Amino acid sequence: MAPLKYVALGSSFAAGPGVPPITDRLAQRSANNYPNILAKKLGAELTDLSVSGATLKNILSVPQKYFYVISFEPQIKGIPADADIVTISAGGNDIGYITGIMRDTWGTTFSGRLLTGLLPTAENLSNQDVADRFTAVIDKIRKIAPKALIVLVEYPTVFGSDEPIRDIPLNKERIRHHRSVGDSLEKAYQLAAKARPGVKLVSVGELSREHGVGSKEPWVSGNVGTFGFHPNLEGMQAVADVIYQELKAENLV
């Protein structure tokens, strides 16, 4: 029996910057991201198209640029017609989720304030706006690969509560704000999954509430510079396991 053909789309929460080894430095894509770990569990042939910094527009139709040079074509162009599974982890860059946390934490030092100027500016989007971007991607995937199971994989929780965390210069009010942005992104995932039949939603956010920054077993890194507040190796392994177990339990693979 031929192996399943699995395609991974997404941003840094799929690509895995800061999780060695990095196999594509421009994409900041790790060999130990959840798509690679999941592919091994499934015995699947992986096409990993995830790119750190990608928005849903970069997945669908807008080439992703670095320093005004086109580096990556829209991810969706790399999907083969015979794909069996397509996972999507994105949307955070559309609303400035992690970059917002970085602005707050970096902005507490002079050098950090200089670096915040390099961060992209987020769009002012509602839950429904982001959900609509997801459904546009879903619709295009179904035209390209009609038999593919489409799986929306939420971001792991970054902050599990409003309480301030050691070594992270955010007060309760700012943490609450960033949690609300994360909640908004989760709502967009839920709206998108309901908008199209046959789309599988993996509620990683809810499942990782006890694994945020500062917890005993965090799935995301703390304030560690460029790749802070992103999934760590334990997080990538956990997300891959959650997806695998849910797909198996529902006899989807």
Account of the protein in words:
There is one protein chain. α5 (97-106) runs antiparallel to α8. The chain has helices at 12-15, 34-42, 56-60, 92-95, 97-106, 110-116, 127-144, 172-195, 204-207, 233-249, and strands spanning 5-10, 22-24, 29-30, 45-48, 64-66, 69-72, 85-89, 149-153, 200-202. It has 253 residues and is α/β, with parallel strands linked by helices. It is globular.
Offer a concise description of the structure.
This protein has 253 residues and is α/β, with parallel strands linked by helices.
Key terms for this structure?
five-stranded parallel β-sheet, alpha/beta, globular, 253 residues, 10 helices, Rossmann fold
Number of strands: 9
CATH topology: Rossmann fold
Strand order of the largest sheet: 4-1-7-8-9
Oligomer: single chain
Q: DSSP strand (E) fraction?
A: 5-15%
Helix content: 40-55%
Rg on CA atoms, Å: 17 Å
Q: Provide the CATH top-level class.
A: Alpha Beta
Number of helices: 10
Structural category: alpha/beta
Topology:
Elements: E1 5-10, H1 12-15, E2 22-24, E3 29-30, H2 34-42, E4 45-48, H3 56-60, E5 64-66, E6 69-72, E7 85-89, H4 92-95, H5 97-106, H6 110-116, H7 127-144, E8 149-153, H8 172-195, E9 200-202, H9 204-207, H10 233-249
Helix pairs in contact: 2-10, 5-6, 5-8, 7-8
